[in-house]
């Protein structure tokens, strides 16, 4: 036994005896040490140290003895010894600080090592039990002839088929090191104070790194579930911070390792959200979004350094994609546990990270920059969709504030079809508050929408205010989305779902009228075809209008309106099925190659609809007006406007109740001749201005000094006279009740009289 174990540190002979036995590899002293640890002392020993016991018990926990039974006993003894050390020291601040890293780096890995091998032990025991069971069923009972002193022969059945005694099974189960290690770890973490969490968690992370246990991630998730359920709830955010820091430290590790850390973070964050996550909410999302951007860069460049060189580790793109999906899933699962106000903050935070072509968010140029921008936009919108799914907010003004809605709808005008689809799905997630979205997953013209069992609620005052403020913005983006040539079936299904949900969640009479005008404008778009849309897009727009008008007519329950819609749909079924969703939105759509000569019987007529709805109390005058979206500066994001469209843009604001309507001059039509004349006139004006400047310069260069001085003097005298007139008008004496006198120039001028000489009426004097 080492001399260091002597009297200075171990005042008790019993402690010296146990240390000596441990040095000589006796597995029994841990039981005695546990009894010693349970002894309550009145005064603690300030000179007692447990370094040797921690080291020796940790070594016993890692025993690799050839005999399985002896190995199990040694490991059990080591775990019990560590448990005794923890119980002896953890609650007494005057004892040796067991939470120091030098002790935690031995205790925690020893417990995890025994936890780690529980799967192997279970698999071995299952294999052994299955083998014994197979032998019991398939091996016949062979008589064994055994010679005994009397010379008799006894038949003995093979004992492999016997089941163990039920009295022995509990004893076997109690001696599993993994269960004892788990209890000890839970006890250790349950006693951890605020300042000790970091020292207890760091060895766990190091152990998982050293043994490459992030990739299967089953054991890592199990460890952190034990940790999260064992520590005090108010300390949960400290574990989240440790995991986030570890994820940042491993930002250049393999994608499988980072995926494992993110999966563990997801499980831990959900548990922590039930308690307290403290200030780590936005920090967690910021870290995850930063890792998402790094992963996109890795996938594009193919290396962690941004350039492939000799010895650079090549990145597998599919692994990075799996990591990105894991991050998005984690963002959604954690956000789903947050209260509404924190979820709103997270939504705004994620949206602020989406790169947009504006002054505040400069876009990267070049092919690589465009790919990076696009992938970043898609991943962030996916994350936003995960967060918004299931979001319940009674007030739409809070759910979709102006700054968020403006940025989101700006994204809806981009060229990329996938990005536009994500924006539509996000809007649907916010607006759908009664779970009606899945009922509009397919576009159809049902004769009776009662089979959908829609949950319809009355539009609240807050929703009415929201629609008054943002309805035209929403309609405009829906209209512009319908014009996109790259639209596919998913886009039209999302547009139909958005129109239907607005009608159910946010509609009043004014909104219904505007939505009908919008859909009729979409029908006109397909009929006139100024955008030169393909045949499929035109048929899809006709079908979209038919499905929505069929829905809104049954929601308004106006019989004449329903009858008109039904008649047009029946006419299309007989002679133009390619204008109905049942024939368009299928795997093999039936299209017509000639859509230019569509007869009026196949179209929904605005005059007829305004007539029938006007008789039921709706605003017939507003229904008669065709819907025309007002183009704004956001349209530059679409990158599709031609010069002709820009020139022909005419904004005309009409007010039907204005008294000056008759006096208005109609807007001048801008034609090619008008533009040519304007250009020629501007050139002539520039020539005249240039000639005038030349004459002035020449005059000052060649004219005699007296002429220049006289010219400048005349200008100075003219300026002085103008100033005198201004001073006369502005600087006047205060008014006087005595009247006015005539000035020298024949103009009336006020004259000031002292107050004591003024004559006031008798009624004003008292």
Question: Any overview of this molecule?
Answer:
This protein is about 60% helix and about 0% strand. The protein has 30 helices and two strands. The protein has a two-stranded antiparallel ribbon. It is extended, with a radius of gyration of 43 Å.
Tell the overall outline.
extended
| Strand numbers in spatial order across the main sheet | 1-2
Task: Please count the helical segments.
Answer: 30
Strand content: under 5%
Q: What gap, in angstroms, lies between the N and C termini?
A: 119 Å
Low-confidence stretches: 1-11, 23-27, 123-173, 636-666, 736-749
Largest sheet data: 2 strands, antiparallel
Q: How many strands appear in the DSSP assignment?
A: 2
Mean pLDDT over the full residue set: 76
Helix % is 55-70%
Rg, Cα atoms, Å = 43 Å
Organism: Eschrichtius robustus (California gray whale)
InterPro entries: ARM-like (IPR011989), ARM-type_fold (IPR016024), EFR3_Homologs (IPR051851)
Protein name: Protein EFR3 B
Characteristic terms for this protein:
disordered N terminus, mainly alpha, 1% strand, 2 strands, 766 residues, two-stranded antiparallel ribbon
Topology overview:
Elements: H1 13-23, H2 29-37, H3 51-61, H4 68-89, H5 101-116, H6 118-138, H7 169-174, H8 177-190, H9 197-210, H10 218-230, H11 236-249, H12 255-273, H13 280-301, H14 317-335, H15 340-353, H16 366-388, H17 396-399, H18 402-411, H19 417-431, H20 461-482, H21 489-505, H22 509-528, H23 535-556, H24 559-575, H25 581-584, H26 606-614, H27 620-624, H28 643-647, H29 672-702, H30 705-730, E1 740-742, E2 748-750
Antiparallel strand pairs: 1-2
Organism: Eschrichtius robustus
Protein name: Protein EFR3 B
InterPro entries: ARM-like, ARM-type_fold, EFR3_Homologs
